[in-house]
Amino acid sequence: MVFVAIIVASVVGLLPAIITGRIVDQALVGNDMGLLIKLLFAALGAMLASQLIGVLENYINSWISQRIIFDMKNQMYDHLQHMPHSFFTTEKQGDIVTRMNTDISGVSSVISGTLTQVVSNVATVITTLIALFSMSWKLALVGLAVLPLLILPTRSAGRVRLKLVQEAQAKNDEMNQVINETLSVSGSLLMKMFTREAQEYDNFVKVNEEVTEISLKENRSGSWFRVVMGMFTQLGPLLIYFAGGLFIIEHYDPTLTVGTVTATVSLVNRLYRPVESLMNLSVSFTRSLAMFTRIFDYLDREATIVSPANGAKPPMDMAEIVYDHVAFGYDDADELILTDIDFTVPGGKMYAIVGPSGSGKSTVVNLIPRLYDVAAGAVRVAGVDVRNFDLEYLRSNIGVVTQEAYLFNGTILDNLRYANENASMAEIEEACRIANIYDFIQNQPNGFEAQVGNRGLKLSGGEKQRLSIARVVLKNPKVLILDEATSALDSISEQAIQDALEKLMVGRTSIVIAHRLSTILKADKILVVKGGVIAEQGTHEELLAAGGVYHELYETQFRQAIESERGAGKRAGLDIQALSTSFDVREVHDSAVTDVHLLARSNHRFWREVGERPTMAATTAIVKDVPEGAEEKHFLGFYDENDELVAVMDLIVGYPDEHGALIRWFTVVADRHRQGIGSQLFADVRAALSAQGVTHLTLQVPEQEGALAFWAEQGFAATGERFEGGRFPTVTLSRSI
What architecture is the 321-553 domain classified under in CATH? Predict the structure, then answer.
């Protein structure tokens, strides 16, 4: 329809010039006023018809170009969604956005501009040439004699402009890169914190000045070109008037009339601009080609990780995960990151992966949801190679919690419903309780409708992390992957998250990448990745005894050597600073007894249930007392970042035997105990004691429901010993460390 409209418009566009010739020859020369009026109305009608056809052409043209852009953007977005994860780790985000928006939107100018202009110009040239030669072939040849003079400067100027346009585009890309890097959230923060505003401004001014200079060069070259073209286009009509006058005055062509000369001048003027535009076609075509090259560079890239036809959907409950001699490399198969990863995670078990930085721990777990495909071997879940899974089904059954929680700019509820848009509020609230984030949300002025900000920056790291865990809870995956989910958080947030993760892992097959020993100790088995292979695997005790890679990692992480029976078998003194990675640990002396007493009194419910009221004298006695036969006593205080006492522990080391330890008293301030700090502190202490040669723990606990439940959760069991002689009945509990 556009092309038909263009051809019709080209034909109709000839009429005003032809009618002008008739006005001169018939109406003016013949003194016929009636004919003059008719011809004027005919010319007016032709011009109106040409304009209306142009409007119709423009509307159809715009509709086509905009619908093509609509379709191309949809196709590009769908294509990019299915590109492998490696695509997004290598491509610049700014490039992706530019090609999605600027380049595809530029197609509009190609469709509505370049393409239609070519057709329109060709139609105009052809129809005009036919009209010219039908009126006077002699004058037509005179008018066309100027065309070579138009072609040469047009082609020369086109080459110069193309070079300048390419330089300008490169500089614009450089300027866009500066803008994207320095005015993003992370970039602006980095700039502010390093006070680099002045330097970045100078850098931007420099690039902006280069862009401006190139644009000015392009404009200057275009100005001189327009001057030359203006001269040549005026030369053509003058030659026609000269030739026409010569033919008429000297009677060389008796059939030639003044009207024919006038019409020829109009038609030649109508011819020059399309010819000039066609000569510039190479410039427009090259610019359009560069745009399409960038677009199709993405569209032509193959989505290497796709769902197979009739992909498998096996039951995923308590699914076993098998790595069968897996090898993997990102770009070149000759440069493998993983060379022979071989292990099995039984259904429902939790395995921890440890290893030096850059050893490929995250890469190992990323193979399960097929973010990457193996180069050799196979990863099987529930007995099926992940490459044979229905991809959507596989990923819908895998939950991933990473170190950096990503939230969309929206409300808390929007981000939670991203996992399950049909989740009821009851399900959402329960997920938030499991993730230890419900109370925080309830305390927000807008509750679940509170805005999280760009990338969740209105929330703390711990709050974002707990929201991401609640989101995974709503997804209800069968397989859970935790990639350093708590490594960069404060101790209180970390404990809340650790508790949430432990609830989440129940009944699921889990693989955890962790740096905290307390997390690693809870694993059913520990896998040590080094040099592209599973260098070691086993329990904490087995790996320490082996004295290999894990032993080295362990020493590096906690800055201490493992003390064991060497030489005379004498265990070294306790390293106090190694007892916790969350709080500052210090020996409590007499001067701090008052703080210990106030901490103890905060646990009102406990003391009511045991029928005792803590006194200052009793607290002092506990701090000072050393049981008979014990050589090494430590009364420890755990202090937070505000130097407030959070917990105390009465620890007797080397008692009741050389490789044991007795915990006589362990109390956490009441409000922190409800946050789960006690479990985390004990896990840290237990890990550090193990590192220093302690093999088993004993403690005496009041017969109080809460205390017995807490220690049962820490893995302690009753020995059968019960004591009635003290201030309140106690039972003895023990466990292997």
Answer: 3-Layer(aba) Sandwich (3.40)
